[in-house]
């Protein structure tokens, strides 16, 4: 497989009392993207962080800040996350009833636009917005928490999306999120994913283990 693999550690599994240092450590360990899970206790049953934290973390890394919005509605917060320094803003169709308009807004803000498909959300949700999309995020768990088990039905979905992306001829990231570890990472890559989100598997063992964790996810071993 010639596609470059990118690793996007989810800071949901970092030490929240030391987030700046954690982001610097995971950056130095070889992370490609810094994945930020934003949850509102409404769209998903958990509460995490908002634009103020993205803004505070921005000076700690030059890596791509990959912001996954699990909030409904998402529209009122797009500008704030863009101003805070996000590079990618990804939204769920269920949280964005006017998905096309929301993607247009993200692009108008000068950011890369992502669409996230929950395990039960069909690939067809993308049919009429592919021209606006820079990233497709396939959830391989139901969103809300780190540390859940990988859902196998994500794999045929990734295969279908790989074919759809290749047919566009555009460079659209195909990212997978949830339950990614040494066993599931190679399966997701073989199905066609090229960006792996990993929380538990990136941050386990503390800072001295981060470089090894990321290399193992990237190279499968
Ligand atoms: C789940 C989040 C994931 C999560 C992944 O709602 O979107 O990014 O942090 O955690 P792991 O890698 O532990 O499954
Ligand atoms: Zn995520």
TrEMBL record:
Please state what the protein is called.
Ribulose-phosphate 3-epimerase
Cofactor(s) annotated in UniProt: Fe(2+); Mn(2+); Zn(2+); Co(2+)
Catalytic residue list: 37 (proton acceptor), 177 (proton donor)
Q: Which reaction does it catalyse?
A: D-ribulose 5-phosphate = D-xylulose 5-phosphate
Function description: Catalyzes the reversible epimerization of D-ribulose 5-phosphate to D-xylulose 5-phosphate.
What is the protein's species of origin?
Answer: Sandaracinobacteroides saxicola
Chaperone as UniProt keyword: no
- Extract the CDD domains matched here: RPE
Which UniProt keywords are listed? Answer: Carbohydrate metabolism, Cobalt, Isomerase, Manganese, Metal-binding, Zinc
Residues that bind substrate: 10, 68, 144-147, 177-179, 199-200
Per the UniProt entry, the Enzyme Commission number(s) are 5.1.3.1
**What top-level branch of life does the organism fall under?**
Bacteria
